Amino acid sequence: MHGQVFVGRYCSIGRRVSIGAAAHDMTGLTTSPRLAKRGQDGTCTASELERIGARPHRIDMPTIIESDVWIGDGAVIFPGVRIGTGAVIGANTIVRRDVEPYAVMAGSSSVPLRYRFSEAIRAELLASRWWDMPHDTLSRLPLGNICRLLPENGSIAQQDGFASKPRYSLSLWKKNLTAYLKARLRRTG
Questions:
Q1: Where are any strands of DSSP class E within 11-127?
Q2: Handedness of CA 42, 96, 13, 100 (dihedral sign)
Q3: Tens digit of pLDDT per residue, the chain (189 long)?
Q4: Phi-psi region of 92 (alpha: psi -120 to 50; beta: other; left: phi over 0)
Q5: Superfamily the domain 5-30+44-188 falls into
Q6: Cα–Cα distance measured from residue 75 to residue 91, given in angstroms and rounded to the nearest whole number
């Protein structure tokens, strides 16, 4: 793992996975780290990036892997990428862009092959924040079959066992991180 990486709860990560993979800054004369030591001449401003036709680099941004993500062997996750809760990243997949919750990704395309569940079920699962539940409570639920966990009527969060107050809050962490990044961007121009 490289740089700032956050990994949520209940993730499965295969062998030879590169998260927050190092990348060369391409805004200087050369990409060689031997000649162009990153940051010694300052980073490009937004107007400078526009002038040279370059995209802002995400090298300094944190890589966020939310809860219940499965990353297959040999996957490469670029810096600054956010992988949503419940996503599946296939073996040897290259992830350059954010991945939506419960999306199934494979290869180097930035388009999901499919989703694990319907849109309504994905919304229910995200709203339930099940990953915040104590492990002993989770272990008593029928987790191997999503149909047995879902109520016929009402929401998942209303079922017995679902905690009303999370012990851990990724949303609070993301809120603080967003404020930090916005302040940092204002300082660098």
A1: 12-13, 18-19, 63-65, 70-71, 76-77, 82-83, 88-89, 94-95, 103-105, 114-115
A2: positive
A3: 556 899 999 999 999 999 987 666 677 767 776 776 655 666 777 788 788 887 666 666 889 999 999 999 999 998 889 999 999 999 999 998 999 999 999 988 777 889 998 898 888 888 888 888 888 888 888 888 787 777 655 555 555 555 444 444 455 555 555 665 666 667 665
A4: left
A5: Hexapeptide repeat proteins (2.160.10.10)
A6: 6
End-to-end CA distance of the chain: 28
DSSP 150: S
Evaluated on CA atoms 39, 45, 46, 50, the torsion sign reads: negative
Question: Residue 123: in which H helix or E strand, if any?
Answer: helix 119-128
Domain layout of the chain by residue ranges? 5-30+44-188
Please name which of 130, 84, 129 lies closest in space to residue 105, comparing C-alpha atoms.
Answer: 84
pTM beyond 0.85: the answer is no
Q: Please say if 135 is a catalytic residue.
A: no
Cα–Cα distance, 187 to 118 (Å, whole number): 42
State the residue for tokens 């996503």.
87
